[in-house]
Amino acid sequence: MARSDALLRMEGITKAFGGVPALRGVDFDLRPGEVHALMGENGAGKSTLMKVLAGVHQPDAGTIRLDGEAVTITSPRRATDLGVAIIHQELNTVPDLTVAENLALGAEPRTRFGSLDRRRVLDDASTKLERIRASVDPRLPMRRLSVGQQQMVEIARALAEDARILVLDEPTAALSSSEARQLFALIDEMRASGIGLVYISHRMEEVWELADRVTVFRDGRSVGTSLRAELSPEQVVNRMIGRDVEDLYVRTDHAPGEVVLSVEGLTDGAGIGPVDLELRAGEVVGMVGLVGAGRTEIARMIFGADPARGGSVTLDGRRLDGRSPSSSVRDGIGLLPESRKEQALFPAMSVRDNIVASTLDRLTRLGVLRNRAAADVARTQMDALSVRSTSAAQEVQHLSGGNQQKVVLGRWLAVGPRVLILDEPTRGVDIGAKQEIYRIINEQAGAGTAVLVVSSDLPEALGISDRVLVVRGGRIVADLDRSEATEEAVMLHATGVAATKDGGTQG
Ligand SMILES: Nc1ncnc2c1ncn2[C@@H]1O[C@H](COP(=O)(O)OP(=O)(O)O)[C@@H](O)[C@H]1O
Ligand SMILES: [Mg+2]
Description:
The chain is an alpha/beta fold. It has two domains: 8-243, Rossmann fold; 248-503, P-loop containing nucleotide triphosphate hydrolases (Rossmann fold, 3-Layer(aba) Sandwich).
């Protein structure tokens, strides 16, 4: 029997994509006038559950009840009719139409001559926007709005359609802090009016401020729902990762060996450099700094992806000239770029072909790929990295972010690199995959590879590195040993405070 206090009750929801389960029998419920936070690492299944609710995906099994009545939500239109609205992670408006036109979509008012009633389109839009006190000009094209304003338009549309259930999927990811404040005030009002809200977010402070209840997903399962007042943030994190946080970073002490890579005076002639750095065999070096400090640019220049206008790169005592990504690969320098989707993956190719992409010379005889050898290389890396896919033939676009990242890593490890440069290797991957990536980094260092890790996640950089380089204004402004590299020390250098204090500190 469905309890009468639930507005929504989802039971045993199961959903797989191409045979890979995204939801494995999930229960979830929502009460009127509550904010129910849905948390969990990337890939845990949060968006998928909400897309099932919104009629975007059909579940493979399970039931959905609204006010105790079982319903089938066959389309987004049907969801709207049932009073379910979702503000997707990727916004859902038409950029070239005006705000007013977007708000009228699907129910355009007509004049008595049958043409679009522009006056009413505009008036209706103003009413809908005023209702949520959104300061947006309804005559502007949608694409001129900030993300926060676009979101407000979507919320205005949802409320105009009498939504009783509103899902916000990571709504603050791209908002300014004042936009976020405005959103929170609106959420409070909607809650007070009896709307049930599902709030998906990674941000603990927000959840703590807003949520009445918290449900945590891990690996397509719900690992528990609790009143927020009865939870601690540590408990939430432990539920998300399924183990204690302290064990997250994997690092063993390695005695650093001889200098493998030495960079001197490297510069692009514009804002980046001159950069000097040395990487030793078996050491993990973190490269940190504020957004825009030039970390990625330095990494790309070392790899030869971007041209240098001066300076030198020396590998094992040999100065490298005429550098390019392909010469780097031959020399045993690997780069895992920041955006794996755009720069590193062949999405429509198989896991196997992605892994062997940099080893083709070795695996080809008389121009023909030796299939057995390629399959062996792929299998070895898939096992070593615990890549989760249905088979080596599966297209990488169907893997989770973490598994895609492991495939790109596997490609470099198949080469057996001397130097591995990893640019944000764990961005956008779930915590389980993060830990595996840390394990792989640690193993590589243990095997004598020099590893340079660019990371915006400071606890991560400090947790896995033997040494930390701080970048500011395109230069390395501090080289901190593990023992000196505290978050505070790093931030002092990254922000330039250390340089202005008492005549400048040497990094
Ligand atoms: N349209 C889709 N096709 C294939 N796989 C998908 C699709 N949508 C989600 N997935 C997969 O389902 C899993 C859960 O994803 P998602 O629900 O987006 O997670 P979350 O929102 O918690 O980050 C991931 O492994 C993801 O790659
Ligand atoms: Mg999501």
